[in-house]
Each structure stands twice: as structure tokens, then as C-alpha cells.
Design brief:
single chain, alpha+beta, Alpha-D-Glucose-1,6-Bisphosphate, Chain A, domain 4, 2 domains, 6-stranded antiparallel sheet, 6 strands, elongated
């Protein structure tokens, strides 16, 4: 099921639909332009902001049939996205927060509690459902993760990685997503989650 959040964001930022931008680039862009050249053209000629220009370029590359950003090379593996941030916190403190009801709201939605055992299934108040596959306390979670309007589940992995400076990197990596639009939606989702973690964990 296609998610149109990226297209709506482009239209809100630029006043043009994605279809209109595809027409523009089809007429004006050179066939061998790279992603960066497309972005440069949009920002300089049409004064589009960097972020919407990047989105338009991504859509145009997919429109042309090129392998878009986030497309997994393996056949049938779908799209993937990764977001990671580093925080001044211990693995124990981060794990305690991520597995609390407050923390789970960031990546699962509203749930009273989970035992965090392999094989445990869940469905949040927001309709996110799945099954825990790998649970390594203070290190890693791997699970299936599906929104209620998706045709198939994705795979989500959360890793807690200590750094040499005593901080902790928290990594969200999601794969097997249906299309570019879902990937774009989930990239924003995990970036928002990482930003909230910054507020909560320092």
C-alpha cells in the first residue's frame, strides 16, 4: 500500500505536485545527471529548499527506473532505512527507557507492558503489530513490525552500541518495506523517535 506523505510534503513545501516536478525534470534534466546535480538544479533554478529538492530527486530517480535510495540489492528484500544517534547514557539506562511504556510509545505505540521474550506477539493502541524474534538485554532487539494498513510486515532491529568515549549509540534499522514512500515515511518516524530520545536521555 503506497504512502503519500513524501508527495504531500513536497507539494506543501514547493506548491507543485510530484507529478508536476516529474514533468519539469523530464523536460529539463539531462539523462546522465546524478542525484546531486538534480538537487543543485532544483535549488538554483527553482529555488527549492534542500530537503524537498532531495525528495524530488529521489522520486525522479525512481520515476526513471533507477535504483532509488534505500532499495535493497537482494531481489524481494524491499526497502530499508537506518537512523542512529549517540547519547550520553549507559546501555542499562537506555534499555530501561526503551522497554518502559513511555519509551515503547516511540517505536511501538501505546502498550501497557511487554515481557520482551522471543516469540512474544504484540499489537499497540495505534495498530502496530509484530513478533519479537531476538531479545538481547542492553544490546539488541529484532522483531517484525507492521502498521495496520500495510500489506506485509517489515523487520526492525534496535541496537545499543557503546562508544569508546563512554556514550551510547542507539541504532534503528528497518528493512523489507514495500516501497520508497513507506521508506520515506519511516525515515521521518525514526528521526522523530531519535529526537525525542535526545530530549529524554540528554
Amino acid at each position: 500500500m503506497t504512502n503519500y506523505s513524501s508527495q504531500q510534503a513536497v507539494e506543501a513545501d514547493t506548491g507543485r505536485t510530484i507529478a508536476s516536478w516529474m514533468d519539469v525534470l523530464s523536460r529539463e534534466a539531462e539523462k546522465d545527471w546524478s542525484h546531486g546535480q538534480l538537487v543543485d538544479y532544483l535549488t538554483s533554478v527553482y529555488e527549492v529548499g534542500i530537503e524537498p529538492a532531495g525528495r524530488i530527486a529521489d522520486h525522479y530517480e525512481e520515476f526513471k527506473g533507477n535504483k532509488p535510495v534505500g532499495k535493497t540489492a537482494s531481489a524481494g528484500a524491499g526497502y530499508q532505512v537506518g537512523v542512529r544517534r549517540t547519547y550520553p547514557v549507559t546501555a542499562e539506562a537506555a534499555w530501561a527507557f526503551l522497554t518502559s511504556p513511555e519509551g515503547m510509545k516511540l517505536w511501538l505505540g501505546g502498550l501497557p507492558a511487554l515481557d520482551f521474550q522471543p516469540g512474544q506477539t504484540f499489537q499497540s493502541d495505534e495498530g502496530i503489530s509484530g513478533e519479537m524474534r531476538v531479545v538481547k538485554p542492553m544490546q539488541q532487539l529484532r522483531l517484525t513490525w507492521k502498521k495496520k494498513d500495510w500489506d506485509r510486515p517489515s523487520t526492525l532491529q534496535i541496537r545499543l552500541i557503546p562508544t569508546a568515549t563512554g556514550k551510547l549509540t542507539i541504532s534503528f534499522h528497518q528493512e523489507n518495506m514495500a516501497d520508497f514512500y513507506v521508506r520515506d515515511e519511516m525515515k521521518q518516524y525514526w528521526e522523530n523517535a531519535a529526537a525525542v530520545l535526545q530530549e529524554k536521555l540528554g
